[in-house]
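Re: that chain you flagged

S.,

Sorry for the slow reply, it's been a week of failed gels. I finally had a moment to sit down with the sequence you sent. For the record, here it is as I used it:
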Amino acid sequence: MTADGKTVFLTYDKPKGGYEVDMSIWSMPLNGGIGRGTDWTYSQGYTGGDMQPIPVRGGIVYTKYLRADDGSIVSQIWFVNRPYPYTLYAGRALTTQAQDCRSPNISPDGKYMAMICTYGKQISNLVIAPFNGSGIGAMKTVVSNLLVAQPTWAPDGSGIAFLAPGLADAPFQLWFLPRGAYFAPAPRPVPTPSPVGGGPQSGPGVSPSPSTAPPAPVIKPVQITSLQGFDAASTLAWAG
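Prediction finished late last night. Pasting the structure tokens below so you have them in one place:
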């Protein structure tokens, strides 16, 4: 839903031909219906289509599924700032086919994007990148040892919730990655005490020798549940 609460973005199976069903991104008035909807994207056939639209200032970001040169189905994060058919010219990919990224989620301050990237392997990394409203900066992998799904920022910016199995081949559980795991402050120089006797002494015009503070402790994801078994294809939402 847009920030003004008037427009809803969703995936819808039109246009379609015959038995083929590939989703496209649509918008519609909150108090209207799909009959008053607007088609924003044109999906590639036999791929599943376009999914998970997120309104941002000036447009939307979403997951586009498409067929790679080798015939495999891959996903990309795309941005578009106007409805179809203009999206054929205005839409652009924010990630590459080789990165195979999906499930974008924007931080509460609008400055970062969380996403899932596989890099063409049987893995599912949690990745974040700076976001300027229509493009992303350098991508950083923050969780690489779990089969991550559906990253969702906490409303207060304190961390990212996501789904992942607690054990190999086990059902998906709820996890939380605290903010300090990916926005850890840089270590600050600390003064080294001056030696007693025979060495340099502190005084006017003499500065203490700097040294590097110990590295910050590694902050790992916290497993919140252990027995529930969540649907990894369903988007998370915060309440309260």
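What I noticed first: The longest strand covers residues 59-67.

Talk soon,
D.
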